[in-house]
Every structure is written in structure tokens, then in C-alpha cells.
Amino acid sequence: MFVKNPEYFRAIVKERSISKAAERLYLSQPYLSQYLAKLENSLGVVLLDRSHTPLRLTAAGEVFHAYLERQGYLDRQLVSDLEELKDQKRPILHIGVSPWRGSILLPDVLPQFTGQYPDVQVVLHEAPVPELGELAAANRIDFCVMQIPNDLTELTYEVVMRERIFLVGHRDHPLLQGMDSTIGRAKPFPDLRLLERERVVMLPADWRLSRLLHNTFSVHNVEPQNILVTTNTTTAINLAAENMAFAFLQESGVARTPYLDRLACFTLGEPPLTCPVAVVYKKNGFLSPAARAFIDLTRAFYSRYDQPGE
Prior knowledge:
The chain has helices at about 5-15, 20-25, 30-45, 60-85, 100-115, 130-135, 210-220, 235-240, 290-300, and strands at about 50, 55, 90-95, 120-125, 145, 155-170, 185-190, 200, 225-230, 245-250, 265, 275-280. By secondary structure, it is an alpha/beta fold. It has three domains: about 5-85, Orthogonal Bundle (Arc Repressor Mutant, subunit A); about 90-160 and about 275-300, D-Maltodextrin-Binding Protein, domain 2 (3-Layer(aba) Sandwich), CATH 3.40.190; about 165-275, D-Maltodextrin-Binding Protein, domain 2 (3-Layer(aba) Sandwich). Strands 3, 4, 5, 6, 7, 10, 11 and 12 form an eight-stranded mixed sheet that branches. A two-stranded antiparallel sheet has the order 1-2. The protein has a two-stranded parallel sheet with strand order 8-9. A hairpin with a 6-residue loop joins strand 1 and strand 2 (about 55). The longest helix has 28 residues, at about 60-85. The protein is elongated.
């Protein structure tokens, strides 16, 4: 819909006062009050609760303000995209991934994407998981592929998969003698309390996967005494392959994990523990056709691993 002078309403919301907004806009207060009344009349809803000082948005006002913010972003994006085309620049798609996630996802998805969008330049932003959310919130990337972030104040997400989490350890570890369990025939680990005195490699405690694992430990009354923290799943798997520790592996990384012949793999609990993987981007942000195509390819790639919702 077309909204005349949307900056007037934004100014009222920012100043939380019609008189202050009028002063900022160099308009008279009666004129701005009349503008607001006409706007509410055309929409058929009350946008501001005038019984409070300073003014507050009503529920309808919150929706309308979010619409204006999104529309403003789309307008700016349109101008930028048209300028790029006018200057004959290649469209650029900025994608955020952790180093480990990028190493297992991109070799399968990127060739398909470049086949469909050969003129789009892909720029990868590889960073630790917490930094990915910050990049998306700052609008420095189009989207990132990660576990759902803790802070969603500036972000929104689409879940593309819920993948099983495997406990992995070297087949020669004394604890695993007689336990025949492979990725293709993964069995539940019989008793998590057996891990209490073993070295266990985990991601930082505030990362979503670690929080899920710690919750699982708590449910089973388990308190691992020897936790080695890393920010890289590859490091964890390599240590497990050298019989140095137990580690946890997301199912989507199985196909590109070396040393599987050395590792025994177990699911955790019944039903098996899963962790959601999502595409995360700025709230009210704009996803270009190329970005949407990459997301759809990612969802299709991950569909082979997707488990029922938690």
C-alpha cells in the first residue's frame, strides 16, 4: 500500500510526542495531528494510545510501524540494486557460516547455486557462531546458516533442518569394547553416566548445541568432570579419532568427516537428541531472489537429515 509521508509517523513514534515531532519536522502541531487522524481513519485502526504520556503504540501501531520499517529497508535495497545494475556490477550475495559448517555445506550447495545464478558473486563470511548473529544484525550479510541464536531482538530465522547429534569415540577406547555402533546403524548410548570421568570435547557452554547437551546431561544426572572446550567441531572430531576424547558430531557433517572407520557413533536418548539448524537474517530484512534460491537449495540439501520436530 502507498503511505504518504511515512517519515511523519516515524518521527511521532521516535519522539513519542506529536508536538516534539512537529518541531523536528518544522510543521505545526495541528497539521501533524490532522495527518495522524487522517492516517488512522484511512487504516480503520487507532495507531497511538493518547491516554499515556509519552505516547505509546497500540498493537495495530506496532504492526504498522514494523511495516514502515520494512518498507523503508526495501526501498533502500531497491535503489542499491538498481544502482548496481546501472553500473553493470555483479550482484553480490553475502553468506555467513562457521568454518566447520561452511566446510560441510558449501561443497554441495555452492556448485548448484552458481549453476543457477552464474552472475551472482558469492562472498563468504566465515566466523564463530556468536559473531554470525552480530553480522546479520548489523546487516553486513544477507543471511547466515547456524543454530538458532540466543538473542533474536534484531533477528528472525527459518528452520531448515533438525539434525541428530551423535556421540563419537574411538572404537579402541576401553569404554566402547563390544559396542558395535556405526553412523548407518547408530544405537543409543547405553548410559551417559559412563562419560562422567572421560574427557569430553564440547563447544562453548552458551552455544545452543552445548546447552542442549548440558540439559541432556542434567536429565540423566550426569556431570562430566573433564570437559575440553573448542569452537571448532573439526578439532573435536580429530581428537576423538586419535582416541583422546569423546566428541559430538552433527549428522549433516558425517559425509565429509574423515576417520569414520575409526569411530563408533551413538545417538543420545529416545527419541534421539536433535538440534535445529536455521537460516538467520535481520528482522524485517529483504531476501533477494538469489538469497532465497540459496536458502531453498540449503533446505533441499538438508532434507535428507531432517528429523521430526522437538
